[in-house]
Amino acid sequence: MRVTLAVMPWHLMTAPNGAAGVLAAALAPDHEVTTYYGSISFAEHLLGEAETAEEGTARARLLPEAYMYVAEEGFTGGIGEWLFTGALYGHRSFPDEASAACAAIGFDPDVAEQIFELAPAFADAAAQEIIAGRPEVVGFTTTFSQTIPALAVARRLRALDPDITIVFGGSNCDDTMGAALHRCFPEIDFVVRREGEAPLRSLLAALAEGDQGRPASIPGLCWRDADGTSRANPEGGALPSGAQFPPMDQSAYFERLEESPVADYIQPALMMESARGCWWGERHHCTFCGLSDLILPFRSKAPDRVVEELLAGIERHQVLDVLTTDNIVDKNYYETVFPTLEKSDLDLRVMYEIKSNITPEQARALRGAGVIQVQPGIENLHSLPLKLMRKGVTGANNVATLRELQEQSLTVLWNYLVGFPGETDGCYQEVITQIPLLYHLQPPLGAHRIALERFNPYFDHPDLGFAERRPRSWYRGVFPDLGEPDLNDVAYLFETPDQGVGGATLTGLKAAFDAWREAYATSALTHRAVAGRLHLYDRRAGRRAADHVLDEPAEVAAYAALGRGRSPEGLARHLSAGGWPVDAAWASAFIDDLTALGLVFRESGRAVTLSTGHDATAVRGTAIPTPAMVGAGT
Amino acid sequence: MIRDLPPVDLTSAAGVAAARGRPDVRVLEVSLADLASGTAVPRGKQEPLTWLRVRPTGAELDGGPWPGDDALGALPAAGVVGLTLEAPALPRAPWLIAFLVRATSFQLPLEWGGPVADLPCGLLFHLAPPAFGDEVAGKWRAAHRYGQCYWRRGPGFAAVQDLREDPGAHFVIHEPGLLALFHRLADPVEVADLGADDRAHLRDLLDARLAVELGGVAVGLPYRLRRWPAPVIDF
Fold this sequence. Notes:
The complex is a heterodimer of chains A (634) and B (235).
Chain A: E1 2-7, H1 18-27, E2 32-37, H2 38-52, H3 64-73, H4 79-82, H5 85-89, H6 96-104, H7 109-132, E3 137-141, H8 147-160, E4 165-169, H9 175-184, E5 190-191, H10 197-209, E6 222-224, E7 230-232, H11 251-258, E8 270-272, E9 275-276, E10 299-300, H12 303-317, E11 321-324, H13 337-343, E12 349-353, H14 360-369, E13 373-375, H15 383-389, H16 395-407, E14 411-412, E15 416-418, H17 425-434, E16 447-449, E17 452-453, H18 457-460, E18 470-471, H19 473-478, H20 484-490, E19 493-495, H21 503-520, E20 524-530, E21 533-539, E22 546-550, H22 553-561, H23 568-577, H24 584-596, E23 600-603, E24 606-609, E25 612-613, E26 630-633
Parallel strand pairs in A: 1-2, 1-3, 3-4, 4-5, 8-11, 11-12, 12-13, 13-14, 15-16, 20-25
Antiparallel strand pairs in A: 6-7, 9-10, 17-19, 18-19, 20-21, 21-22, 23-24
Chain B: E1 2-5, H1 13-18, E2 25-30, H2 32-37, E3 49-54, H3 58-63, H4 69-73, E4 80-85, H5 93-106, E5 110-111, E6 113-114, E7 132-133, H6 135-143, E8 149-154, E9 157-162, E10 168-173, H7 176-184, E11 189-190, H8 196-207, E12 211-214, E13 217-220, E14 223-224
Parallel strand pairs in B: 2-3, 3-4, 4-5, 6-7, 8-14
Antiparallel strand pairs in B: 8-9, 9-10, 11-13, 12-13
Helix pairs in contact in B: 7-8
């Protein structure tokens, strides 16, 4: 069949769309597949307007950075969806609620209004462009804020050509969400839910063969029976194994970008998929995590395959930056993929999500491989909220992770989450008072109250504390014709009464983080072992510069042992087992001495050291200038 | 018992020198030849933090030998926290530039300076700036920022990012002959020694401002980006 995969705004256009890349590769052997990058087209559309606009007007600011701002920051407020409601429903004026939502994230409502006004013409053009390719099937991927834009184009396609088969898929189509979209939007013929390769292949085979009976048996598929009634097959078909994941086809994206004026504004990265699911979540689903149980089983690609695909993509597209879609990196890769990449001596920049709780060797392996940006899922620095989250890590060890990553000069992207039923104010005060000790480590991007999302254990089990919930208010605005039951089914993000600590604590936390951000660039706490002694150099902002030295071998050994969070008893046991016969009193006194000098972080009875190996070549706190406008040349 | 020591300034030669009688820091006077041969500093993990004072002889100022990647790259692990280039005159320009490119690549703190007004500083301010000198030296220091002109190694290509000017430029050097010359220019090359093809390639690099030719000797300008800042993005 002739299939067009449509990637609509607000896909983050700095890399190929993962879903489209996987599906294109999965379908290519049997079908003629093209990919329409509506994200790039829309950004071009906006850029075209900006270039002819009068200087200083809102229209003049419709640059790719405006597109990226909506794509990166707009999801939880439904901004991207709001911006296409005019295109879908024919509304003429930009709703006040949408304006307010834009202002709330620091996006100028005047610029937003321009986008809102331009979206309908763009949707017309998009539909025309897709139709011109004469596809028999058009598949829309919907994740984050792509649903309304996709519906806007789907509606136009349906009007232009009643015979085209329209399929929706993607994260916004999982579970009841996809079934609700199917019920409520007749322009959608089929919805494919969960991992799409197998059901989509089956569906296309059925369409090609004219097999009317097959849709009823494709796992998870939403289809219409002879009466036009929407039917939703139970989900839960077999999940593909790592060996079955097709390699992501990136060429459609790079070809499209190459010919685009938008290319001058962005630095594209490769998109890689090396695993699906989560090996931690399979056993203990983190309570705030919105990954559905059905796709939690962890499956990863074999290490040599990962390396091979990575290097092939880098060579083919001549790009050295790599994003990964993995929810968590396969632990195996620390000893396989990463050492192999290190040997290649390429200057890669790879981004991965990892489990917090990594060893120094693992941190070294990341750096050697060029995995210089990680999301370690830290979330909190106190063991009680972490336990409530089922993260499987202590606060002290999260600090150890921040320290190990800092030692390797890796960029750490992390957030601080609050609002867990059962947490106490103490969990936060204990941390707030010690934040100045952490000034030399990377601060979190922000502190947020946790949001209830579909598929969280909190969502599935109201008895855990979030019994009252309703869809975020913007869903009603972007789906004005849906009744409450359908809205409840279609929503992914929910509002709940606040749980856990109050607003004052959250405010205090944010203020402490603001100070941390200010202090980071000028702060360091380093050590150097010289002739068996450990020397420490404290240059953290807000403290007097101080040098310390540990002379005694037992102290040096104890300091090393406190690289992992330990209680005094635990420290004494560990040292005694290692040939240093000390008792808990000694250990306690030593930890207190370190505490007096601000050299340890303490929580839940454990202490952990903070210093990193002295490295005069570390580049701190000054991000590489990002090209605002870079021309391409060879 | 944890002892306190007066805090040492590890960011300058003067700071390290001022910390006397300590086992953890020292200043070492080394020759350029020793630096180039990799024998300037004992390579141990428990060596003191060391500031190197390098005094090139007159002959060395004129043509080296200067340390290559291996020699410079080994210094941080051996405890070197900075290097001062002490000379009565500036080294011959192409060699100075090659050295600055390497030092910037390894992000080794470097103290150097002198009369730079005769150098094409408009092409050089992405490199480790002079700590002292004339008015132009001051402008170089003010304009300098990490990440303004660098390259990254890919399989069979070098990706160059040049943000010295606005708008910036991004190049992918993949043609084998051009790529080979680009790599060769990590050290100064006598233009007279180049064949016709290489001269054409050199012309391309000069036009793109990725190399400079001074007194018949050419040298490359972008440094290999080995250290990403932490964080790589702005907060």
